Write a sequence for this structure.
């Protein structure tokens, strides 16, 4: 996929940060009339016109999953001509209450590929586009181009990166609840393109994607001892992260993808280590007796949040990524576990275990302040941030014990189910792909 | 020096464990085990002689209770009579715990059982450990009774 022109994250942040810092702005309406094509040959499957119509529907579907935008369209009667892509009629959308408008085109090239362009306008102000994005893609990659257009609209409206051209890794579960068959699965952020990374012949847990979503670390019980393995999604090659070591678990990539933090178990003691993703040097970061686990890097890679029971109950701690300056940040009752630092650095999501209540997802500021529980439980765990830092993906076990994936806004509200072909647990949401 | 103290302690423990078990002290050394063929026969004999291949733990704890120590005492006697047998001690957490912490807790429980069996005189070479975390519940559900039955360590004969 070639980026042709992309004025990413322009002044939109400055323009739009103003309406309601700290309080939730009402959802804005965005008009999505059908994307057009200058091609004369229109209609056949795989033609520019057909792709344009499918892309329009996918963009609307993407934006419908957000809390911040309400799409209207696509509607065949709103079709516009190619010149109108950059000179839209604002009045008709103003009349429908739209704040934003997305236009675009798909044009076939002599080499068989497609040019896709998208433009986002402020309907109220009118004038030229706020931002635009364009690609040349193979016909089979039109979905990614459409997701990029959705992301453009989302970032214009919210100032946060779009969450659509992403991947989700999770554990696909099937079979009896006593002895689940578990497979690492990877799918697009919208649930398409699912593939299995492991075969289901051994228990696997907690997959985590590398920042480029081209590698994966996870825990496998193959050989009898749970241990961290590193898989290359392109070549399908995989290997133990630390050859010959005993039990290891809880792997997480550093933001640059070069290091992996994880836990190694020695007897009754669990401590946090960092290894190079390429193999080689291993550094021990914690030495407290008891269980130190769940390490997760800050987005700048300089700090690590983790859980430790050194105080008697499992609580959250932050340290420098070389293991120095360890300090406790959670002080509530019950236990805190599986912390995850938000991509914007502001928040830490966690699973809180409250006796008599169960497991719930919560967030706190990175300094431990402003703690709030988001989900109601009683069996919610494994939070993972959306790249927008505005939503959290997690899994919830139902009354029958079967887990499913859900996403919830950090502003609260009901979690929404994320459809997966099989039961799903241990989700990990990637960054926006390049 | 430290090693000596530990060994001495182990010897005392082993002696006191033997003292609780009628028959053992009168016939030292440990008599040869009846010849059992196959791992399944060995497993059946182990459970029959030791009373149980499992011990249970309190919530979030890896502390051995008195009943657990009694079970391990009987397991130790059997294992000392079968020096050729290797076991894998499998520790488990319960469903109320989080996934990764449950792995660590299961490992802690398995290690607690392992070191107790060593104290009772079982050669360390006979003992390996692993943790299932909360991946293999014995009982489904989240009732306190179900959770209690899942917080366990199982001594599994492997050969």
């Amino acid at each position: 996929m070639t980026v042709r022109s992309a004025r990413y994250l322009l002044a939109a942040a400055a323009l739009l940060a103003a309406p309601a810092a700290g309080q939730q702005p009402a959802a804005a309406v965005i008009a999505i009339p059908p994307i057009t094509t200058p091609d004369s040959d229109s209609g056949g499957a795989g033609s520019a016109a057909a792709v344009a119509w499918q892309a329009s529907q996918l963009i609307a579907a993407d934006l419908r999953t957000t809390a911040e935008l309400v799409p209207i369209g696509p509607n065949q009667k709103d079709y516009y001509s190619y010149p109108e892509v950059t000179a839209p009629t604002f009045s008709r959308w103003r009349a429908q209450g739209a704040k934003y408008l997305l236009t675009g085109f798909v044009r076939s090239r002599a080499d068989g590929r497609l040019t896709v362009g998208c433009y986002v306008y402020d309907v109220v102000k009118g004038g030229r586009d706020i931002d635009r994005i364009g690609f040349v893609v193979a016909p089979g990659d039109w979905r990614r181009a459409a997701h990029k257009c959705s992301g453009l609209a989302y970032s214009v409206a919210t100032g946060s990166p779009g969450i659509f051209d992403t991947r989700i890794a999770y554990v696909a579960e099937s079979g009896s609840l006593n002895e689940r068959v578990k497979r690492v699965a990877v799918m697009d952020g919208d649930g398409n393109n699912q593939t299995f990374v492991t075969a289901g012949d051994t228990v696997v847990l907690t997959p985590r994607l590398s920042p480029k979503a081209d590698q994966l670390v996870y825990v496998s019980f193959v050989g009898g001892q749970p241990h961290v393995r590193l898989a290359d999604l392109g070549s399908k090659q995989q290997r133990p992260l630390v050859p010959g070591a005993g039990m290891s678990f809880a792997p997480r990539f550093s933001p640059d993808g070069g290091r992996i933090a994880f836990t190694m178990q020695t007897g009754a003691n669990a401590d946090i280590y960092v290894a190079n993703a390429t193999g080689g040097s291993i550094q021990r970061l914690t030495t407290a007796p008891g269980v130190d686990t769940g390490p997760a890097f800050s987005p700048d890679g300089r700090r690590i949040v983790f859980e430790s029971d050194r105080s008697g109950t499992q609580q959250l701690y932050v340290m420098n990524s070389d293991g120095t300056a360890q300090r406790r940040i959670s002080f509530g009752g019950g236990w805190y576990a599986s912390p995850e630092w938000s991509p914007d650095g502001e928040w830490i999501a966690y699973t809180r275990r409250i006796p008599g209540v169960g497991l719930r997802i919560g967030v706190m500021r990175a300094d431990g302040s402003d703690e709030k529980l988001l989900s109601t439980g009683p069996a919610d765990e494994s939070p993972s941030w959306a790249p927008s830092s505005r939503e959290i993906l997690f899994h919830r076990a139902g009354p029958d014990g079967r887990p499913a994936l859900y996403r919830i806004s950090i502003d609260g509200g009901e979690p929404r189910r994320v459809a997966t072909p099989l039961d799903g647990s241990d989700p990990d949401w990637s960054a926006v792909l390049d | 020096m430290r090693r000596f103290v530990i060994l001495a302690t182990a010897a005392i423990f082993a002696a006191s464990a033997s003292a609780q078990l009628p028959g053992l002290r009168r016939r030292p050394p440990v008599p040869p085990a009846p010849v059992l063929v196959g791992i399944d026969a060995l497993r059946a004999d182990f459970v029959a002689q030791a009373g149980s291949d499992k011990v249970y733990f309190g919530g979030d704890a890896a502390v051995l209770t008195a009943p657990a120590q009694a079970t391990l005492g009987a397991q130790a006697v059997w294992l000392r009579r079968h020096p050729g047998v290797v076991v894998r001690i499998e520790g488990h957490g319960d469903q109320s715990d989080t996934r990764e912490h449950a792995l660590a807790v299961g490992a802690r429980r398995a290690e607690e059982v392992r070191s107790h069996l060593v104290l009772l005189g079982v050669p360390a070479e006979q003992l390996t450990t692993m943790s299932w975390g909360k991946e293999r519940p014995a009982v489904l559900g989240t009732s306190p009774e179900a959770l209690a039955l899942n917080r366990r360590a199982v001594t599994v004969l492997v050969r």
